[in-house]
Amino acid sequence: MQSTFRSVAIVGKYMDTAALQQMQSDLTRLAHHLLAKGLHVCVEANTAAYVEQEGFEQASLEQIGSKADLVIVMGGDGTMLSVGRALRETGVPLIGINRGRLGFLTDLQTDQMLDEIDEILQGHFQLESRMLLHSVVTRAGSQVLPVVALNDVVIKSAFRLIELEVHVDGQFVSRQRSDGLILTTPTGTTAYGLSAGGPIMHPDLEAISIVPISPHTLSYRPITVPADSVIEVIVVSAADAQMSYDGQGQFPLAAGDHVRIARAEQSIRLVHPQDYCYFDMLRNKLNWG
Predict the structure, then answer these.
(1) Which tens digit of pLDDT belongs to each residue from 40-98?
(2) Burial, 115: exposed, middle or buried (Cβ in 10 Å; 0-12, 13-18, 19+)?
(3) What is the CATH number of the domain that holds 65?
(4) Fewer CB atoms < 10 Å away: N or C end of the chain?
(5) Are residues 241 and 155 part of one domain?
(6) What is the pLDDT, as a whole number, of residue 100?
(7) Dihedral through CA 19, CA 20, CA 26, CA 31, nearest 10?
(8) Could you list the residue range(s) of the whole structural domain that residue 207 is in?
(9) Is 46 annotated as a binding residue?
(10) Average pLDDT value for residue range 210-234
(11) Residue 151 annotated as binding?
């Protein structure tokens, strides 16, 4: 059967040399398998140094979106998050091979990856769209740090309570003293938001969850709003507050900063095996029994 995808890119845990060394044999095995099927194979530049195989093209992460119609990511959820953000403008779908810990976003395991990749190449897969968040900080009238997140945008202090004021669509919601606040997509509700007592939202939902981190007043509870809401968080007192996105970037905040969070214009597409079930994934990853 002819492959649904003709050009396939491979991205390993490209910012971690030690991890790439550990997965070298699996990367090589995957590249050899795809090349043997007559596919055009493109390997991310940092990853390519650890692929013992000729016949593939090298490209930067930014170039891959225009060269491939499927991207295979070998790593953990963190790698999937960064690759998804980098390729969001292209719409190219991603499939993950888990070389991390829990792997909520990486469906395949290395011992079965070739058989499962073959099924996907033959058109036996599910395709799913995941929403993103766009955040920007306004300081003294100027916009700084526009970022996009697949999981969450987090405003927090490491050691002291901070005071935050929350507005949704221009309406005042609350003023709270807490360790911080998590603004999360449905994808991100199984990440930091879950640890902070937030709800798990099915990824088909279009919503944003606002989850307080250790609020000083225990009546402050998580609240979920429609995905088209515009959320504004005003930093009243900052202490050592900072903002992060997907747990991968940090930016110090100051009193008076306004953080605007809304749904991003782009989304990312994930490829799942044909028999993928979200509830099976939750049960296995969270040990529900």
Answers:
(1) 999 999 999 999 888 999 999 989 989 999 999 999 999 999 999 999 999 999 999 99
(2) exposed
(3) 3.40.50.10330
(4) C
(5) yes
(6) 77
(7) 150
(8) 132-265
(9) no
(10) 95
(11) yes
> Own/partner pairs for 98-102, CB < 8 Å, 24+ apart?
99/13, 99/19, 99/22, 99/23, 99/26, 99/74, 99/75, 100/75, 100/76, 101/76, 101/77, 102/77, 102/285
Residue 1 confidence (pLDDT) = 45
Task: Flag whether 103 is marked binding.
Answer: no
Residue whose structure tokens are 């043997």 = 36
- 118 plus 152 within the same structural domain: no
Three-state DSSP class for 52?
coil
DSSP type of residue 110: G
Distances (CA, A) of 246 to 184, 198, 277: 9, 16, 24
> Residue 139 domain-assigned?
yes
Is residue 96 a known part of a binding site?
A: no
Helix (H) or strand (E) holding 184: strand 180-184
3 state SS of 23: coil
